[in-house]
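Slide 14.
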Amino acid sequence: MNTKMTIPDMHEFLARVFPQMKGAFEILESEPYRLKLRMKITDADLRPGGTVSGPAMFTAVDCAYYIATLAMIGPEALAVTTSCSINFMRKPLPTDLIAEARVIKLGKVLSVGDVMLFSEGSDKAVAHAHLTYSIPKSR
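Slide 15: predicted structure.
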């Protein structure tokens, strides 16, 4: 199965549907069932101790998996997270985050997969998440 949205399509969709997130994400790579994304980290995403906050890390994995799912099903703004479990593995650097999403199973109503999260410039994962998304029936 090929992707239904190109990287420019996905950027345009996000800008239109989530204007409040403008400039927060850059889709680096997209291929069937896989997506790589950069989340730009700002001072608002940092916590004491010189690290990226847990909520910012959740945002990165959730958005990466959302976009990976949309790449496969097309622009469905109402696809929603039904489950997410994150294992925080090491302290992230106070730099941009790189999320590598993988769609493991894509059904008619659910998308199940995972995301590995890295500090930019490091090959050691800072977190791993398992996610399930509900896909609207309008598809």
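Speaker note: The mean pLDDT is 95.
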